[in-house]
Amino acid sequence: MSIIVRPAQPSEYDAAGHLVAEAFIADGHTERDGDYAKLLRDPSDRAERAELLVAVDEETGLVLGSVTFAPPGSPYADLAVGREGEFRMLAVSTDPAVRGRGVGELMVRAIIARSRELGLPRIVMSSQQQMVHAHRIYERLGFVRTPDRDWSPIPGIDLLTYALELGEPEARTE
User: Fold this and answer.
1) Where does residue 60 rank: exposed (0-12), middle (13-18), buried (19+ CB within 10 A)?
2) Digits of tens for pLDDT over the chain (174 positions)?
3) Which domain holds residue 45?
4) On the chain, which terminus has fewer CB atoms closer than 10 Å, C or N?
């Protein structure tokens, strides 16, 4: 399976939205009929006001994962300040044939590459405490916990935060 991560095409929005909602529901992060699940199912606004990326099987065109990248100034940034980038709503298909194949890590690497392309000094993100497998991926890629930024979007949902320092971009010589 050859996987690429790229901006979602409008024809993929439904598949990406369904995938994210189903993954969050299956992992116990939202209720099937809850407001957050409804938000997850409709990624068109995220694609317009942030960057909606998909991981796609190059051979079949099947959407295997999706993530929203909020560059500086995006209304989808919950945690980021200043010139920080943030990613949210990262999900991999619930299909057992897809899980464990590195799709999540490929999407995080794409976010890192995009942040470097934009010259951002840092990437931040929030994660639920029980997402232990994802935490291992983030830490392996150099993200560190930032407990001083932990927060709760609603009562009973406590989010852990992580950051990856990218440093200031090098000065360009002409």
Assistant:
1) exposed
2) 699 999 999 999 999 999 999 988 887 778 888 888 888 899 999 999 999 999 999 999 999 999 999 999 999 999 999 999 999 999 999 888 898 889 999 999 999 999 999 999 999 999 999 888 899 999 999 999 999 999 998 888 899 999 999 987 654 444
3) 3-165
4) C
Residue 173 belongs to some domain of the structure: no
Does 47 reside within a domain? yes
Identify whether 104 is part of a domain. Answer: yes
Residue 109 in domain? yes
What is the token pair recorded at 54?
A: 């998909």
Residue that has been written with the tokens 């935490």 in this structure: 135
**pTM to 2 decimal places:** 0.91
**Number of separate domains in the chain:** 1
Residue 96, SS3 per DSSP: coil
Using DSSP's 3-state secondary structure scheme, residue 2 falls into: coil
Give the CATH number of the domain where residue 85 resides.
3.40.630.30
Per DSSP, the three-state class of 117 is helix
